[in-house]
# Entry
Amino acid sequence: MIRSLLETSAALLAGAPGFFPARASSVAGEVDRVFGFIFWISLFFLVLIVALTILFVVRYRRRPGREEPELTASHDTRLELLWTGIPLVLVAVMFVWSTRTWLEMTRAAGSDEKPLRVQVTGRRWSWWFDHPGGKGSEELHVVAQRPVELVLSATDVIHSLYVPEFRLKQDAVPGRFTRMTFTPTLAGTYPILCAEYCGTDHSRMLASVVVHPDQRSFDAWAREGLAPDGSLVALGKQVFAKKGCLGCHSLDGSRRVGPSVKGLWGREEKLVDGALVRVDDEYLRESLLKPGAKVVAGFGNLMPPVALDERELQALAAYLQSLGEAP
Ligand code: CUA
# Structure
């Protein structure tokens, strides 16, 4: 313990070349700085408190002729303000700094470019990544400097996608979609780990992320070996037909019993109670499993719940998105 603490300190002191993994996302540097700040403050107080404890134990120990405790001052306002004020300022700095860094993580930082949207499935015990254009893979592929939006779900238990080089981690939770946005900055191949204990082979639930140097290299990979009908979009189209969605939801914008799905993705819908909702993965999930929860204004509460597994839900999301997005 002490040895690894010392090694950590020494490495941080030396500017940590090669000690931490490479910084391969736009937030990695800031995460390291917050970590370093908290680490050094903690180390400083650890040393100070332990040293004072030892000093006082030795100095005020019981010995012959000093059996009774000495009288001590009961109160010193200046001292109390000092040891309340300093920690208060320090934890306030930690709070503000780390919250700002966290907010930065929730945006695809550094660009207004449309993010690369990848649908991620965690299952015991592997990851699956569905990329735009239909390529599915056990590896995540992204492009350097292009923002990425991962939409995660899990088919069985909670998993957590963790890329140490990005300093980022997000849970994949059964029954809902979670999101992770980031901008990779450094081309290369980095490990993906599962960071939530999920059973026997949790520690072997490994994958990698390939950061392509440019879009061309990504496109070449995405086309390679692409089965025309193996894509998530194709599966979504099948599900849409098989579950009878077309009976009530047109593809061409015409009005039927339910809203048309043309240009549905990203659209702001007005609900019967007047609230606005943006059509995204989470809204889609809720509307399929609990159709009465958010009914669009002008339509009746007529839709029955649709039984779908996680993959079919993702496929429908990909298919609806492929039909065109709202501006
Ligand atoms: Cu999946 Cu741990």
Q: What stands out?
A: Residues 122, 125, 159, 194, 196-198, 202, 205 surround dinuclear copper ion (CB under 6 Å). The two ends are 55 Å apart (CA to CA).
